[in-house]
Amino acid sequence: MSTNISTRLFVDPQSNNLPLVVNGDLTASNDTCVPLKEPYVQGVSVVPALIALENLLFLIAVGVNRNKLKHNNVYRYVASALVANFVTCLLGFYHFINYYHGFEPTEPNHWWALRKGMTMAMSLVMCGNIGLLIYAIEDSTYVVGRSTTVNHQHRSMDPTLRRRKAIFLICIVWALPTLWGLLAMTDWNCTNRCNCTLSYVSGKSICPDSRCSQIYTPMSKSYLLVVVILWALECTVLLMLLIRSICNVRSAFNDGEASGKKKYGFRKTLAIYKASHCVVFALFVIFFIFSAPVMILFILDFAMPDLDFSQMVVNCVSPLPMLYCLISPILVSQRLSGLKSAMLMAISFSRTKVTTRTRATPDKSTTAALNGKDPATATSV
Asked: Does residue 7 sit within a domain?
């Protein structure tokens, strides 16, 4: 006859003799590797699923209207950021579902290590995509500046060259973290030193080796420390790039105003770029706030091996980066009119015209200013 006892989602790792109930019954021994059949796990899995759906809708909107948005390279970088958000949330959703149902084998394997390594690498990809958005703003500003200072077509303004550059940068941002994620399958990490991919009935550690992380298995503590270092370097570089981009844009327009060529219509253009920088800065701050707690846990896990981590704290902190994936598409769509229009069209199944702020038809004064003429003497075409 089975005996029912109260169940808990997470068991204190020190309570090795406390049995964990499987489906409310004491039907398994303490050393059995089993899925965690708790409704809380399925409830938590809804969050990354909904966020993944949100980013997928934005991606579909960009894909359906790609012919109307392809003239602006910014949307290529935005699409890359949306894909990173979608993949991150999809991996998170699969983690919770597998934790509940136990789709994968209970024996440690390379797929388990690769999946966990790629989930960690996606934080570096998301950080890199913010850098691409910073570059996109500065690149667009440079093109506008060139069009007011030279009369011939500059090579950097060639649409084909700029498109290829965008594809190349996106590939770099994705390739380097992906290679780092592949290292999760090497002996550097603890796949061969772990005994289970889910959880023990007794609640004991599935990777008892002291070199292994107790909060993100099967990664080693040194592997996660390097991830923290790479994350910190990326954030530092992003902040420097953002400050440099703001200074360059302001300097370019100040030089133009001093020469008397940009006093018509370009103050409004400068305001647009300043607003774009504010959005990217907000993305950076949100990403830093939501990813820093996870990195702090990794540092503590490495520096204080005897520290007992509260499982509730760990499992509340781990999904925080997904909140960035929730906020970033909404924030970007408020700045990019083309993305916002495309999303509204996708939701309403409308085929109305997609409007993009950066490619709107210039008015008479702006056209005259681009040609170095006085708007007062310009005539309508």
From this structure: no
Report CA dihedral (52, 54, 336, 127) to the nearest 10 degrees.
-20
Pair of tokens at residue 69: 């948005």
pLDDT in tens, 153-182: 444 557 788 888 889 999 999 998 999 889
Handedness of CA 90, 95, 98, 103 (dihedral sign): positive
Size (the chain), residues: 381
Range of weakest confidence among 136-150, 231-245, 248-262, 264-278 = 136-150
Q: Is 2 exposed, middle or buried (0-12, 13-18, 19+ CB in 10 A)?
A: exposed
Q: Give the dihedral sign, CA 350/46/316/116.
A: negative
Higher pLDDT, 251 or 378: 251
CATH number of the CATH domain containing 114: 1.20.1070.10
Residue 5 lies in a domain: no
* Minimum mean pLDDT range among 89-93, 184-188, 207-211, 250-254: 250-254
Q: Which domain holds residue 222?
A: 33-367
Q: How confident is the model at residue 39 (pLDDT cuts 50, 70, 90)?
A: confident
Angle at 192 between CA 188 and CA 197, to 5 degrees: 110
For residue 107, is it left (φ>0), alpha (ψ between -120 and 50) or beta?
A: beta
Question: What does residue 44 show for φ and ψ, rounded to 5 degrees?
Answer: -65, -35
Q: How many CB atoms lie within 10 A of CB 225?
A: 18
Structure confidence at residue 149 (pLDDT): 40
CA atoms within 13 A on the CB side of 62: 26
How many domains does the chain contain in total?
1
- Please report, in angstroms and rounded to a whole number, the separation of the first and last CA atoms in the chain: 91
247 within a domain of the structure (yes/no): yes
- pLDDT 10s digits, 333-363: 887 767 777 777 766 665 545 544 444 334 4
Residue 23 lies in a domain: no
What pLDDT shows up at residue 18? 39
pLDDT value of residue 377: 43
